[in-house]
Design brief:
Elements lengths: L3 H15 L12 E5 L5 E6 L8 H9 L7 E6 L11 H7 L4 E6 L9 H7 L3 E4 L3 H7 L1 H9 L3 E9 L17 H13 L2 E5 H7 L15 E5 L19 E6 L12 E4 L10 H10 L4 E6 L1 H9 L5 E7 L24 E9 L2 E8 L7
Parallel strand pairs: 3-4, 4-5, 6-11, 6-12, 7-8, 7-11, 8-9, 9-10
Antiparallel strand pairs: 1-2, 1-3, 12-14, 13-14
């Protein structure tokens, strides 16, 4: 039976894992805490960057000889394979750790089996402690492994009556400076930021992370089917971060940098590109999490494709009465087809309200 000390140690490991958000892809975020044989903290660590030591290695190095006979708490089942780093299961065995407790089993077929290796070496192993909390902190990577596509978070900012711009198309600024700063946090945690051609034309966005020290810049992706929205000199083509312009196979993109062009098939029905093909191409480039910043037409295409995993809406205490809605056609023609969401969090951000929601259980796994 898990004790209060076990829960405290695992919760600390989950907190540590979160420090790696935005810097470990295509690897997961992982935290580890090592207690000595007397139950005292001996070492802790987290996976800091892809290709670098895993969380267990950082924690074992900090613990030194005090790890022998102790307990290691890890948010993800210790890996069992040799990649750019060695197998963590073997490192725990060599350190003499007597007991290993992990939160979530590793779904990656290349790395799973660490628990069995530990047990075969005589190590006591337990799994599932605070699994839901650990899954929530690592949901992007887990989704990418289980579904074979990047995790998609759709973010939008709107007035209280759901408008993203006024009738004359002006939209700066509906939400507050505090909300805009919070969006940069979301960008810093994502591997890629995706916008559509309407946003590119109207806003000429740069799409980089600002105001967060040490943040890695995400890949900037513009879905520009006809290759007419992004022109030479666009801010998204600066050297602040890598950029892809997704265009149709038959589009004339000679005015764009050759290395920035991603050619994709058009959607089988309706305008735009094939969304699953876009996500498959990004996944193949190591992208595990996508921040979808719209606009409404592209967001509708993602919803229609069943590829939105989380929605974060910033609602400002403003009424506009007219103007474009946050979501355009999403293939929903009747109330029975509505995408029902479960609200997981509501938070005040300055004067605004941030609402976080995920698709209901009937749509999960699409």
């Amino acid at each position: 039976m898990d004790t209060a000390a076990d829960i405290t140690a695992m919760r600390r490991a989950i907190e540590l894992a979160a420090r790696g958000l935005g810097s470990t892809s295509p690897n997961p975020v992982v935290g580890c805490v090592v207690l000595d044989a007397a139950g005292r903290l001996a070492g802790e660590g987290f996976h800091q960057r892809a290709g670098g030591p895993h969380a267990e290695i950082h924690a074992l190095r900090a613990a030194g000889d005090r790890a022998r006979g102790g307990t290691a708490y890890v948010t993800l089942e210790p890996c069992n394979h040799t990649g750019r780093t060695g197998p963590c299961a073997q490192a725990l065995i060599e350190a003499g750790v007597a007991r290993v407790v992990y939160a979530v089993g590793d779904p990656n077929p290349q790395a799973t089996g660490g628990a069995d290796t530990l047990r075969a070496a005589g190590t006591e192993v337990g799994g599932g402690l605070l699994a839901a909390e650990a899954e929530a902190g690592n949901t992007a990577w887990l989704t990418s492994v289980r579904l074979g596509r990047p995790y998609v978070l759709w973010k939008y900012a709107a007035s209280l009556d759901g408008r993203i711009a006024a009738a004359d198309a002006t939209s700066r600024w509906i939400t507050s400076a505090e909300s805009r700063a919070d969006v940069h946090r979301l960008r810093a945690e994502a591997d890629a930021v995706v916008v559509g051609s309407g946003t590119a034309r109207t806003d000429d966005p740069q799409l980089g992370v600002r105001g967060i020290d040490g943040a890695a810049q995400p890949l900037r992706v513009v879905v520009d089917t006809t290759a007419t929205a992004v022109r030479p000199g666009a801010r998204v083509l600066d050297d602040g971060a890598p950029t892809l312009i997704a265009v149709a196979d038959d589009a004339d993109a000679r005015h764009l940098p050759e290395g920035a062009v991603l050619r994709l098939p058009r959607a089988a029905t309706g305008p735009g590109l094939d969304i699953p093909a876009l996500l498959d191409a990004l996944h193949g480039r190591g992208i595990r999490s996508v921040l979808l910043e719209g606009g409404p037409t592209l967001a509708g295409a993602f919803v229609a494709a069943g590829t939105v995993d989380k929605v974060v809406g910033y609602l400002a205490p403003v009424l506009l009465g007219a103007g474009p809605a946050a979501l355009a056609d999403a293939g929903i023609s009747t109330i029975a087809e509505a995408l029902r969401l479960d609200v997981t969090e509501t938070v005040r951000i300055g004067p605004d309200l941030r609402i976080t929601a995920v698709p209901g259980t009937d749509r999960k796994g699409n």
